[in-house]
Design a protein that fits this description.
384 residues, globular, 4 helices, 30% strand, alpha/beta, nine-stranded parallel beta sheet
Length: 384
């Protein structure tokens, strides 16, 4: 049985700034990527991701992305914009569809030709999970899934010299370096620290909180957040998702925000995640304004974007992939991909973008191969 993740269309720009940049399947819904949630639920590794919008996508640990083409069973076609619970799912022979909220989230084709689509009838079984309507829905997924995701990690013995507020069994450490003096507050949820990660003295981790493999937390107050693999984080972070391979090595507040791969936040970059009116946060996009219905929304920052020191980001700011944010005054709430400065009048050249990537990615032991360069060039030509 093959597993294929089907990418959603996005005519309304709901997945900004990640639309056309990375598959929805490769965004984190809780501690795990949507793809990983499907893999855990079905017990099958994903063969590939089907989506014309991000065809050719290449990343350090993602399956290939191809155009939706006819398939041959046995195959399960699953929606990338549905995040299942990771509870194992049993598929009786008669089941042809998985449904949630009255909608098909996966189609089971046991033999013969099949289209890469969720269309079709047949015997259905319910599956637990959450439909994702856009980037801001990942914040709701964080709230729903993170407590159980952290609790599901098996840990070793408690590191020496740490302070635990709450039940020490809720500290889950997997072959990581945790210095004496780190504070774990697990009264509201478990804290999980992945293989090869490092947490330095002067850090307070408030659960539920997940620190990915080879991530480094070098000081500050991190609460109810996901710090993805190979990320470096310092300062105050709340209810946020660092997808991975990004850098926030200095002080500054990041709250209710989502950061893509290879993002770098300059020292004291700060996000606002609450309006002065305490009202619902509205996002500004080229497709028009969109009310999230959420009181707390920070910034959504696309892959390879950078901010200058002291950057102050307003509530609900969206920064496009590859943008370099600097300049006088506060940045606008929408900054297009590959912007050079935040005025919106200049764009980074393709050559300049590639040169920066060649300097940045090896800092996380990721070689910039000709295949990587081809994808980055495609990304620039699509969005700049």
């Amino acid at each position: 049985m093959q597993l294929v993740l089907l990418e959603p269309d996005d005519p309304e720009g709901r997945w900004a700034p990640f639309a056309d940049v990375r598959p929805v399947a490769e965004l984190r819904a809780g501690a795990w990527r949507v793809r990983e949630r499907w893999e855990k639920a079905l017990g099958i590794p994903a063969a590939f991701i089907a989506g014309e919008r991000v065809r050719g996508f290449l990343d350090v640990d993602a399956p290939s992305v191809v155009a939706p083409e006819p398939l041959t069973g046995p195959v399960i076609v699953a929606a990338s914009d549905f995040a299942p619970a990771t509870t194992p799912v049993t598929l009786p022979p008669a089941v042809q569809r998985l449904v949630a909220g009255g909608r098909t989230v996966a189609r089971v084709v046991r033999e013969g030709p099949a289209l890469a689509t969720l269309d079709g009838d047949g015997t259905a079984a319910e599956i637990e999970g959450l439909w994702l309507s856009g980037t801001d829905a990942l914040l709701a997924a964080l709230e729903r899934f993170l407590p159980e995701d952290c609790r599901s990690v098996a840990g070793t013995e408690l590191p020496a010299g740490v302070l635990v507020i709450g039940d020490p069994s809720e500290v889950r450490v997997l072959n990581a370096t945790v210095e004496p003096g780190v504070v774990f507050d697990v009264r509201q949820g478990a804290v999980a620290i992945g293989n090869g990660a490092e947490v330095r003295s002067g850090t307070r981790l408030e659960g539920p909180c997940w620190i990915g493999e080879h991530a480094r937390v070098v000081g500050g107050f991190i609460r109810q957040s996901v710090i993805g693999p190979h990320a470096v984080v310092r300062g105050e972070v709340s209810n946020s998702i660092f997808i991975g391979y990004c850098n926030k090595a200095h002080d500054g507040f990041v709250g209710h925000s989502i950061l893509g791969h290879w993002v770098n936040l300059g020292a004291l970059t700060t996000t606002s995640n609450l309006k002065n009116t305490y009202g619902s946060v509205r996002l500004e996009t080229p497709e028009g304004p969109r009310d999230t219905g959420r009181q707390f929304v920070g910034s959504f920052i696309g892959d390879h974007a950078k901010t200058a020191i002291g950057t102050m980001l307003a509530t609900g700011t969206i920064i496009g992939a590859g943008a370099s944010v600097f300049g006088d005054g506060r940045p606008p709430r929408w900054i297009p991909a590959f912007a050079w400065g935040h005025s919106g009048t200049e764009r980074m050249s393709a050559q300049g973008f590639l040169e920066i990537a060649r300097r940045v990615m090896p800092r996380r032991q990721v070689a910039v191969t000709p295949q990587h360069e081809a994808w980055l060039s495609t990304l620039h030509s699509r969005l700049a």
